[in-house]
Amino acid sequence: MPSRPIHHVINDRKFVCVSIDMPVRDVTRLMLQHNESAALVTEHGVLTGIFTERDATFRVLAAGLDADLTPVGAVLTHNPQTIGEHHPFGHALHMMYEGGFRHLPVVAPDGRPVGIVTARDALGLDATAFGEELIRREEITVIL
Q1: Which three-class secondary structure state does DSSP give residue 36?
Q2: For 68-72, which contacts have Cβ atoms below 8 Å and span 24 or more sequence positions?
């Protein structure tokens, strides 16, 4: 499964993508509506950064900023590592592990965001492998 291309993993899944000048409160409301822990931030349609729930907590709330007045561009992570949609999913997992982050923007060659890979996607692999192992054990039990 880690050899599957990323576009099979993200599978045209919806993601939150916002403009760099959108207020933080509006961005977090969109993240809540879509049950997402990150938003991809663009400027003129090209990825410029990523805004995560950690950014909201540490860069906005802990800093005492006004979420209604603070543009997301002031508190996002600029120039995040990205990956193309045809790379293997395992490469994305390796990048997230090595970089110590849980979200990896997927971009087209022109820099336009096409999705996001998250640590949550790796849980799907574990669940699939676990299910396959259970089936194997049941088959062995029937044989014995």
Answers
A1: coil
A2: 68/23, 68/24, 68/25, 69/23, 70/23, 70/24, 71/20, 71/21, 71/22, 71/23, 71/24, 72/18, 72/20, 72/21, 72/22, 72/23, 72/24, 72/27, 72/39, 72/41
Q: Please state, in angstroms and as integers, the Cα–Cα distance from residue 7 to each residue in 13, 52, 78, 83, 125, following that order.
A: 10, 22, 24, 11, 15
For 32-59, write each residue's pLDDT tens digit: 999 999 999 999 999 999 999 999 999 9
Domain ranges in the chain are 6-118
Count of all residues that appear for the chain in the document = 144
Give pLDDT tens digits for 11-33: 878 999 999 999 999 999 999 99
Give one DSSP letter per residue of 101-142, joined into a string: -SEEEEE-TTS-EEEEEEHHHHHHHHHHHHHHHHHHHHHHHH
Could you tell me the pLDDT band of residue 135, with boundaries at 50, 70 and 90? low
Domain 6-118 in CATH: superfamily? CBS-domain (3.10.580.10)
